[in-house]
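Let us work through a complete example step by step.
Step 1: write down the sequence.
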Amino acid sequence: MQKVIKSFSIIVIVLFTLSIFGWTVKHIVKGDKKFGKAITAPIKALIDFPDLFQASVEEVKTLPKTFVKTPENLNPFNDLDKDVKALITYSGKDNERTIELLNLKNNESLYKWQVKNPHKPQSRIMDPLLLDNKEIVYSFNGVTGLIKIDSTGKEIWRQPHMAHHHSLNLDSAGNIWACAYKRENSLFIIYKGKFAIENQEFNFIDNTICKLDPETGEILFHKSLADIIEENNLFYLFLKSDNAEDPLHLNDVEPALTTTEFYNEGDLFISLRNLSCVLHYRPSTNEIIEVIEGPFYVQHDVDILTDSTISIFNNNSHTIWQSTSKNWKVADSQKDYGTFYSSIVGYNLRTKEYFNIASESFVENEIFTHTEGKAEHMPDGSIFVEEQNSGLIWVIKDDKAIYKDVFKSQHEGYHHLPNWTRIIVD
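Step 2: predict the structure and record it as tokens.
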């Protein structure tokens, strides 16, 4: 009997408490009674929580692809013993972009530029260029021409007659070399070329390489890659791509800053992802010196290391992502050839031989990105690596990873997609 009375008493107390709480909530919402801030504030926070939670859920559902879900088992580490200054870009709100100079060693923000995004929520600023006096040259990838701003974000010039995509680099004279599309009929990415095989016609996207004056934005050189290939009697290259609509996919133009036995000052090393090759091109004579093809596939980010070697970020993947059909018959005794990871491949221009760089770290840390990605070699021998698709950032030294992290975002559980981070060397 006592248990029944006790249970009944608890129910009465709970109902009375809920009744008082409901009565208080009703009058707080109606605003016809005053209860004081100490009571009103927590109750308002409590009754607003479902709406805030739902808004948060909807926000995550609609996050643009400039954000990446952070893995729960991410174990970042930082064993940097020197400053590593990285020029990064990321999304604030859909209509805002931030360009930031960040010291990875201590996560110190050294400077920021704010840029309005009048384009789509997923539009990205990739590989911005830092000039003297904190001036920045940037574009929205594949959408706009290049834009130059000062240290306060004020526009200095705008070049609307070409669209920049992927990388930007400076030559020895300080001119800007860009991967580009030519503007035509108010559009940029259009089918500029075609070829036929038997009775089938293939339309394809052309790319251009473009040189600009950094002071004025004037275009100094603008040439079609398809024309360069045709004029050098290398048109067979188009048939080597398994993407007929986008056979070239230019992603880097690296100018030679000096003259050596193996290249001239002003030569360009041009990375063509969908051809899995690097062209050594001489603009002064319109001559392709060498078609560099080897143990790398759908590569990005070619760099000149020494007077006789170059470095290539090897994505080591398919041009177009593929999956295995479940209908295929699998052998009873099947040989496993292991997992492929991305890598850095060196090429000796003298001996025509290839060599691996930091290969053990890539395998040990399972570093892989199907698209984009880059590696920057720093003066002390360490290598900055952007594992772009996952958003992971690495620094490798002596074939050992000494830094791993992501660029944390304002959204819980998500980090910023990196956009071709540029390492700034003083």
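Step 3: interpret the result. The first helix runs from residue 2 to 30.
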